[in-house]
Amino acid sequence: MDLVAQVPDSVPVLIAGGGPVGLATAVELAHHGVRSLVVEPRESVSWLRPRAKTTSARSMELLRRWGLAETVRARAPLAVSWSDEAVFVTSLLGREITRIGGCFGLDLVGSDLAAEPGQQVPQPLVEEVLREAAADALRTGWEVAGLREDPDGVSVRIVSAGGEEREVRAQYVVGCDGPRSVTRAAIGARYEGRQDARPNFNIVFRAPGLAERMPHGPAVHYWVLNPAQPGLVGRLDLKETWWCIAQGVRAEDADPVRLVRNLAGADIEVEILATDPWTARMLLADRYSSERVFLAGDAAHQNPPYGGHGFNTGIGDAVNIGWKLAAVLHGWAPATLLASYETERRPIAADTIEAAAANMATLAPELADPALMGDEAAFERVRPAVAEAVLRTKDSEFHSLDLVLGYTYAGSPIVAPDAGERLPHRWPAPGESLYDRLGPDFSLLGDLSLPGAGVLVEQARELGVPLRTVDLPGEPLTLVRPDQHVAWRGDDPSGALRQALGHDR
């Protein structure tokens, strides 16, 4: 089929970039019945740069909301039951120093805290699942080269791999085009922040027989605290494929085979599949939008990978801007609602950057002690002190549910003064999450015999807002937004829905 013919002349929303955040934005829009066009230069997803390894409990809840959580889990090479532990060792084949359990919300199976536990899964797999879900919107082999905004819309210039140019007219644009974002430059936004001075070197490798030789059992991460070569190692599957981060290693000095063998603690058989030098960045865009162009994911923020927040923060961006764009495009919310996107999401990104930077302050090089590599007596003398330092400095990295599940939009102009948090979760029946009862748009939960229920239902009818009601006898009334955050709770809902839609801005 002719590539040019596949690209429409106009679309309600054009999404620049088809990584996980751009695709999530398209899936969210489709969840609300809004068409989009995702412009992505990569024809296929590469597994040689696995990027994020953890999809958070919150992201998995949102994937459940789209009907995709079970697909991700079924395809994940490591089942959620595989491990929830981080093990700290002298080498993969050496001594164990200590371990931390309950990491990354992987232990939340069946917990009232969340509808879904976290999931260890390479980012490319999540991206492929999202590509399938957004197939109607996705156009690969094209990239956004520029855009021009006017009061009525945005004219977007896209270029194919073969050099063909097209102009697409969109009512709105969401820029999910990463660190070198064309959309960020187009609206005059810029990054603020800093870059870490320490180099890192990622390696994806195959190591036949390594797993069978290891004495430490399953783990999410193995932290190698060898002063001569500190780093992290983990499994990409239960066959022979692994990833590692050699910390403090510059690309020009890297011998990938030797690095892997140093981390393993033996001259194991190694096949190098890919390498990727990088430095951590703590960057936040000074603004998230113009009138019709919005930034999400790495185009808006970057943070160190420690804590597993990465693209998960971008998934939250996608849902927030997605439901708001849908509400405006369907005509039941004013365009003023869109201003709340930056108000709500930029502080979350700032908090995430701060948390990830704090996690990065103490890494394997800072925890390593030469005595750990000595004889058994020397190791046992120093091990308790190192173990204590690990537990003291790394606990927040692996146990961050207050940030992952507990972030709030309190103070946002579109939520009531005592609202903004994610709706507290529970299981009304075996296997049925409270979230499963919510509608795709707004939902009213609580005792529907209370007078306020009828008031809110009438408000929704007058404003044309889709509202699902969920009768919970004896419980107070709670108005829940499409993103599962509480917009209002109480007895008197006068004006609650108007405020939640941005009418009063």
TrEMBL record:
It comes from the Bacteria. GO terms for molecular function: monooxygenase activity. Residues 11-355 form the FAD-binding domain. The keyword Oxidoreductase applies. InterPro entries: FAD-bd (IPR002938), FAD/NAD-bd_sf (IPR036188), RIFMO-like (IPR050641). Its cofactor is FAD. Keywords: FAD, Flavoprotein, Monooxygenase, Oxidoreductase. This is FAD-dependent monooxygenase. It comes from Nonomuraea marmarensis.
